[in-house]
Amino acid sequence: MVTCPPAACKNPVVYFDIAADNEPLGRISFEVIYPAENFRALCTGEHGFGYKGSVFFRVIPQFICQGGDIIYNFGGGDKSIYGKNFPDENFKLKHTGPGILSMANAGPNTNGSQFFICTTKTDWLDGKYVVFGKVKEGMDVVKKMESFGSKIGYTSKKITITDCGELK
């Protein structure tokens, strides 16, 4: 993992442009808590792969919008810039409310490309999933995405990340 003295580190801001059934919904920008280099690099695609063109495959209203399966687009694939998985960084930050950005995993130290955006406080996830950022702008877009979800997570529209990158 990349480290630097706290005074020298600036939290990167990355973005997703979102569409539902090819109709643009808008932009979501995230402040990514340093050192979440994997997420930042998957937003820019600088390693030859990333989030562009992937979908939010699981949306449960009043819970989460989950995406980041850059292999299969349905939740069965995971890939990081470090290989398949990487360890949990820490559990200092908590799932305190809407807009929290967290890694999805299959158990301890199995982080890859999958992530979720909380649409409500989800404190029962604390200590199990690593929080690494928050929505800076675009919660209205997250709410639109949430409106296409269901109790079991299926979406009524295909929600796609049409573009993504880092804002300088």
From TrEMBL:
GO molecular function, one term: cyclosporin A binding
Domain PPIase cyclophilin-type residues, every copy: 15-166
Catalytic activity: [protein]-peptidylproline (omega=180) = [protein]-peptidylproline (omega=0)
GO biological process, one term: protein folding
Record-listed E.C. numbers: 5.2.1.8
Keywords: Isomerase, Rotamase
Record's keyword annotation contains Isomerase: yes
GO cellular component terms, semicolon-separated: cytoplasm
Family statement: Belongs to the cyclophilin-type PPIase family.
Protein role: PPIases accelerate the folding of proteins. It catalyzes the cis-trans isomerization of proline imidic peptide bonds in oligopeptides.
Protein name: Peptidyl-prolyl cis-trans isomerase
